[in-house]
What we know:
The structure holds 2 protein chains of 2 kinds.
Chain A lengths: L16 H11 L1 H37 L15 H11 L10 H19 L16 H9 L2 H11 L3 H32 L4 H6 L6 H4 L3 H16 L11 H4 L9 H26 L12 H8 L3 H20 L7 H29 L9
Chain B lengths: L13 H27 L25 E4 L14 H5 L5 E8 L4 E10 L8 H5 L5 E4 L13 E3 L3 E2 L3 H5 L4 H7 L1 E2 L19 H9 L4
Antiparallel strand pairs in B: 1-4, 2-3, 3-5, 6-7
Amino acid sequence: MFNSLPNLQVSWEVISVSQRVSTTYGESPILAVVYALAAIVAIILFMSLTAMTLVYTERKVAAHFQCRLGPMRVGWHGILQSIADTLKLLLKEDIVPDQADKAMHLFAPVLCVLAALLALIAIPFSPYLAVSDMNIGVLFISAVSGLGVLGILLGGWSSNNKWSLLGAMRAGAQIISYELSATLSILVVVMFSGSMKFSEIVQSQDQGWWIWRAPVVGLVAFLIFLVASTAEINRTPFDLAEGESELTAGFHTEYSGMRFAFFFLAEYLNLFIVSSMGATLFLGGWMPLHIGNLTFFNQVMDLIPPGLWFALKVSGFIFLSMWFRWTFPRLRVDQLMKLEWKVLLPIGFINLLLAAILTLSGFYFFPGNS
Amino acid sequence: MNDTSAQPTRRIPITGYFARIFTGFVSLLKGLKITFHYLSHPSTVVTQQYPENRATLKMAERLRAQLTMIHDDNGYHKCTACHICEQACPNASIHVAERAKPALSKTELDTFIWRLDSCTFCNLCVMVCPFQVLQMKSTFESSVYDQRLLIYNLSRYAGPTSTVLAKQADDEARKNAVEPRSVYDGPTALNGFFLAGIPKELLVTLDRKGEV
C-alpha cells in the first residue's frame, strides 16, 4: 500500500559555508566576508557553548551514575554552574612554574584548542551547515586531531615536572597507538562509501547506516572505533595521561586558570569531534534514519530536520562515552598496549580485509543505491 | 617464596583469545547495566540537599555526632559516677565529677563533663558503660563561635541530691524539685534563665542588635 505512494524522498543538496563564500564572492565581496566572519563567530560561540554544556552534562550524568545529584546550587538544578565555573577560571591568577619553559607552557594549551578547532570546521552538522566540505574530510580530521597530542606533549615537557612529563609521554604512546585502530575502522566506511568527503559518506547512507548495512563488518568497525576513539581523547578507561591516582593530574598538573581551561575546552571539543565522527561515519550523520525502500517510513523520518538527527546521534554517542567513563576502571599501561596491539589491531586488519572483499563482491544491504 | 621468573609463559590458544574477548565484553556490559540502573532510577540517589531539607533530614542511627546521657521521663539517669568511661576515654575528653551522698556515705554524679573539641567519637565510653547510660546521637549541628561552648555538661539537672529527691512525695514533686540546667554549665542552676546568667529577655535584645 505504502509503496504505491509517489517517491517524495528528499534529495539533499549540500552547500558548505566555504562554498557559499566562494560563490558569493564574485557578486558581492562584502557579503562573502560577512559569511566568512559569521562562520568564524559561529564556530567560536559553538566551541565555548558546547564545552560548557558538555561539562555540565558530564557532571550531572556522572553524579547520577554514582547515586549523587551533581551541581544543584547555581540556577535550577545547577544549570548555570558551568557559567560560574568559566567566570572563575577566567578570573583566576595565571600561575607559571618557576622553572617552566614559559613560551611552550603558554603555547601547549593553545595548540590543543587549535587542533580541535581545525577539526571542527570539517564536521557536517547538516546539509547546509558545515564550514568546509573538503574532498579529504576524513583524512583531514584524522590528521588534525592527531595534532592535539603535540599540545599535550608540549604541556608535559614545558611544565618541568615529572608527573606532567610522565603523563604526556603516556598520552603520546597511547594516542599514537590507538590512532592506528581508529583509522583502520574509519577505512572500512571509506571503502564502503567510496569517498573521503563527509557529504558523500553521509549521502551514501541514504538507504541505511553503515553500522548495519555492512553485515557484521560495520558493527565490528564501529566497536573498534568506539574503543579507539575513547582512547584517543584520553577518556576514562584510558585516561592514563591524567591518571589522578598516580600522576596527580598528568600533563596538566602545572596548569591552572585560563590555561587549564583551554586544555579542558580541548578535551570536551575532542569528545564532540570524535562523537560526530562516529555519528557521521557509522550512524548516517545528518541523514534521517532510512531503511531501504520503505518509502512511507523514510518519509516520516524525513519530517525530522537533518540538523536535529545529527544532534541526536551525536548526543547518543556522547552519552555512551560518558557512560563508559563512569563505569569502567582505568587500565594499566601494559593492559592498554596489549589491548591495542594484540586485540584491536589484528581484529581491525582482518575486518578491513573482510570489508574489502564485501565491497568488491557487493555483498551488503542495498548495494545498488549507494 | 615464589620464583615468578621460573614460570613458563602461558600460551593462550586462539579459541581462548576470542573467549577472553567475549567474556570481557560481557562483563563490561554487566557493569554498564548496573550504572545505568542508577542513572535511570533517581530514587537511588543518596545525596541530601541539607540546608534546604533540614526539617525532613534523616541521619543514620549509627552516626556518632554527639555524646548524650540517657535521662528518663522524670529526669533521672542511671549514672553512678564509676569513672569507667573517664578511664576508657583515649584522649581525656570526659571528666566525671562526683559529690558526696552523705546518708549512705557514698558518692553520686555531680557533673558529667564532655569535651566535644577533643573527642574523636570512638564510642569507647558508650561501650564500656556498665549501665548503658551513655549514647551517641546523630545531632551533628554542633558548631559554635566560641570554643568554650564545646565543653558540655551531660548530666542535665542541678539542684537537690538524689537522697533529697527520694524524700519527695511523688514524681511530680521530684520533677518540680529538679531544675533543668544549661548543657554548658557546671553546677550552676538555670534559675529560670535561658542560658546560665543570661535571662531570655536579654538574649532577645541582643538578637535585635544583631549581636547573637
